[in-house]
Each structure stands twice: as C-alpha cells, then as structure tokens.
Sequence to fold (226 residues):
Amino acid sequence: KAGVTQTPRYLIKTRGQQVTLSCSPISGHRSVSWYQQTPGQGLQFLFEYFSETQRNKGNFPGRFSGRQFSNSRSEMNVSTLELGDSALYLCASTPRTSSYNEQFFGPGTRLTVL
Amino acid sequence: GENVEQHPSTLSVQEGDSAVIKCTYSDSASNYFPWYKQELGKRPQLIIDIRSNVGEKKDQRIAVTLNKTAKHFSLHITETQPEDSAVYFCAACSGSARQLTFGSGTQLTVLP
Fold:
C-alpha cells in the first residue's frame, strides 16, 4: 500500500498571503489529522477530519482551516500568513477500523513565510 | 487538556548500550501511547505503541512499559546501533479522540 502523501513538499510564501496544503491518506483510511511541527513548539495538533467532518480542533487561530473530500483526501488552508507560521505541516491517517489511534504520517510540507 | 512531558531532551549512549526515554501524562482518560522515531528531514515513524490494558510490550530491541497509576510510560532500546540515532517522540491519546498530544522529543545519539 502506498503511504500518506502530501503536496507540495516545499513552499515559500510572503506575509499576508494564503496557502493550501494537500494530503492523501493511505488507501482505505478515512480519518486525517493535521499537525504543525516547529523547533520551539514541537508537534502540535491542528484538526482531525473523518467522513468530511471536522471532529476535533486544536488550539490554533481561525486563520487555520481545513476540509476533507469524499475520497478522504484533505486540504488545510492558512490565510493571512505570519512569519510564525513557518513550520513543517504533517498530516496523518488512521484506519477506520482501528479501535485506537494508530496514526501514520506523511512526509510533510515545509512552509517558509518570508 | 492532556499534557505530556518527556525526558531527557538529549541522550548520548555508546553503541551496544541501552537507552531509556521517559514520559509522563496528565489525563487519566488517555488509553493509547505511541512512540515515534523521526530522522532528520523525514516523517515521524511509528515504532511501537501500547494500550492502557497492558503494562509492557516488546518488539525485538524495543520495549515500552506503562504505569497507569503513576501516569508514566517509557521506551527502552537495547543493544543500540548508530542507525537508532534520531529524535524520539512519545504521545498520548484519550478515548475516541484522534488527537495525539506529543512530548517535546528526545535527541538520541548512538556513538560508534
């Protein structure tokens, strides 16, 4: 099975712009979670989607949003970019049948805000 | 919400020695505790996990122990090898939520 894929892998934007990142989960996985990784704050949960519905949201401002499509692919959007949004954005997918929460990560999108 | 503390932040061991990384969590409802290994420039990879209904789990050179009463869990790596060098993250997850709360990471360096 192919792993979780994310596009693009690298992105450079300037302050004030917006950005959309994409994640394709492992085939058959219907839950997708997003995390932000920075040297200072570590790995922080952004939100989780299942069956096109946001089920859980972390403590991030409303500039961070996401959605999930019927094929389980997910996108996250960051509007009005700030320098502090520079980070590695990781998505992870979870098997629908998992009773627990095994999450498998994609390679991430490295976002740099200038 | 959940809070996970991880120690130490850096750990250097000689090849062949054992390494132990410890984590504590705050939410007694947490019932799933995975460990991830992240090599430089790569994605976090799940290396082992433990559910709250067991106290220990082993997979070759890697083991994890869980003490629910004390709310702490540990990763043990035996016979370390240079390829074990990476950042290791512990995490905790409660109930049906798919929100992992991560520790701050441990940079493990295995010296040849």
Notes: The two ends of chain B are 41 Å apart (CA to CA). DSSP finds no helices and eleven strands in chain B. The mean pLDDT of chain B is 94. The CA atoms of residues 40 and 58 of chain B lie 25 Å apart.
